[in-house]
Design a protein that fits this description.
Radius of gyration: 20 Å
Structural class: alpha/beta
Number of helices: 4
Oligomer: single chain
Strand content: 15-25%
Distance between the termini: 46 Å
Order of helices and strands: EHEHHEEEEEEH
Shape: globular
Strand order of the largest sheet: 5-4-3-6-7
Helix content: 10-25%
């Protein structure tokens, strides 16, 4: 991310160990997703805990939450683990727009899209961006159907978009989810990064107010 501070949080794969209720665990992971969006976290890292490894479920819920609502049916297959996600509220971030009218789109507006049609040797591509119809993508590349990508509206008449790199989007654009083998190995790879660790046995970093 150019010119911006990248924030990452690390959570253990044993996060859901206390309950076997999928509904309760879905809510717990959903709260983490919402907090990450509020504090503009760009990466959520799940490190495997030898005691209990529920990284598959946790990452599945996090990725579902981060995906714009209009793309979830296209990009996320129906799975038993996702049966309670309907009770999770949307993130309400910039990449989760509520406007679905094509005439309201502005030149320069960014959207998350998914390829719904890719035809011809010239790389003709149509993307779903959450409006009443797919729109053409101006690109020299051929993207496979189902690929997620970021786009920018560059024309209104006719309506069309072009692919953009996420680093060129000037505002918060969600988080990525990653699963790593262990906390120790990940921290070792981040030696030059400022890290804050939380523990039940740690000391509070906020000032303690003494009773008068």
């Amino acid at each position: 991310m150019t010119g911006r501070c990248e924030r990452a949080i690390l959570i253990p794969s044993s996060l859901t160990m206390e309950s076997r209720d999928t509904r309760v665990n879905t809510l717990k992971v959903g709260q983490i997703a919402r907090a990450a969006a509020v504090f503009r976290v760009s990466r959520i890292v799940i490190y495997r805990d030898q005691e209990y490894n529920d990284s598959r479920f946790i990452s599945m819920i996090l990725r579902y939450m981060e995906t714009p609502q209009y793309l979830r049916k296209l990009l996320i297959p129906r799975k038993e683990e996702l049966r309670h996600v309907g009770m999770l509220p949307p993130l309400r971030t910039s990449h989760h727009p509520i406007n679905s009218k094509s005439e309201s789109l502005k030149i320069g507006e960014f959207r998350v899209g998914a390829v719904v049609e890719s035809v011809g040797s010239d790389g003709g591509v149509w993307v779903e961006i959450g409006i009443n119809r797919p729109i053409p993508l101006r690109t020299g590349e051929k993207y496979p159907v189902g690929q997620r990508l970021n786009v920018r509206i560059f024309s209104q008449e006719p309506l069309a978009a072009e692919p953009v790199d996420q680093k060129d989007i000037p505002h918060y654009w969600g988080y990525e989810t990653e699963v790593v083998d262990s906390l120790e190995s990940y921290l070792e790879s981040m030696r030059d990064t400022r890290i804050v660790l939380a523990s039940r046995s740690g000391r509070a970093i906020t000032p303690q107010v003494k009773n008068q």
